[in-house]
Amino acid sequence: MKRILIVEDDPVIAEVQKDYLEASGLASEVANRGELGLQLALQRQYDLILLDLMLPGMDGYELCRRIREASNVPILIVSAKKEEVDKIRGFGLGADDYILKPFGLGELVARVKAHLARYDRLVGSGEWRRDELRLHNIRIDRQARRVFVNERETAFTAKEYELLLFLVQHPNRVFRKEELFERIWGLDALGDHATVTVHISKLREKLERDPSKPQYIETIWGIGYRFNL
Questions:
Q1: Which of 74, 82, 103, 141 is most buried, with most CB under 10 Å away?
Q2: Which example biological process does GO assign this protein (predicted)?
Q3: In angstroms, rounded to a whole number, what is the distance separating the alpha carbons of residues 197 and 97?
């Protein structure tokens, strides 16, 4: 059974999330403070983390950063903070999704299950063959889910890795933001396409010699992005 960590200081919201997830076959545990959430995330094995931002003590941003330094487990921010800058900051720290409060419980479970399924495909299964992709100075070991830039291993979050792999597998093809969002996040019309922009920026920081003048991931103005051969 998949295990979910809920980091939420509002006991009513936390209990509703826990009950609905468990009714959907997902074991859940609640932490009501950031420090406790970090302790549990680092000491126990979870398949996904639901994270509020406004927490007593350590806030959700710092918690997201600390977890991401140690793990690639999917992190879904669930917050009432709705400004674009809050979403961009969350994605920049490694979050995989951003769900606004109030939210529909059906939507919450749908997003959780979608991220669980995609993470499973990335890290586990027989769908991934033991082979490598090489392009420019980038080497991707698909089964081990490891990326090397100039033969030095570089850390990528789950969504950064999936986006990079997709672009490398489709070089010289232009993709719209909406298309990349649907292909990678798989939640068409449920999310914010600014997510794609943030993740492209993070890829450039890790891949490009000069991210301000990208050679690999090119912006096609008014359309989208292209990974150049």
A1: 74
A2: regulation of DNA-templated transcription
A3: 13
Q: Could you tell me the strand order of the sheet in which 27-31 lies?
A: 27-31, 3-7, 48-51, 75-79, 97-100
pTM: 0.62
DSSP annotation of 214: -
Biggest alpha carbon distance in the chain? Answer: 52
| pLDDT given at position 190 | 53
113-155 tens-digit pLDDT: 998 988 877 665 444 344 678 888 898 887 778 899 988 899 9
Q: Domain map of the chain by residue range?
A: 3-124, 132-227
C-alpha pair distances (Å), 123 with each of 127, 131, 168, 200, 204: 10, 14, 18, 22, 23
User: Which tokens go with 180?
Assistant: 């990349």
> Exposed, middle or buried by CB within 10 Å (0-12, 13-18, 19+), for 166?
middle
Q: Is 197 exposed, middle or buried (0-12, 13-18, 19+ CB in 10 A)?
A: middle
Partner residues linked to 219 by β-bridges: 225
Q: What phi and psi values does residue 59 have, to the nearest 5 degrees?
A: -80, 170
CATH of domain 3-124: 3.40.50.2300
Query: Any idea which architecture 132-227 has in CATH?
Result: Orthogonal Bundle (1.10)
Query: What is the rounded CA–CA span in Å between residue 27 and residue 23?
Result: 9
- The two beta strands, 138-141 and 132-135, are antiparallel
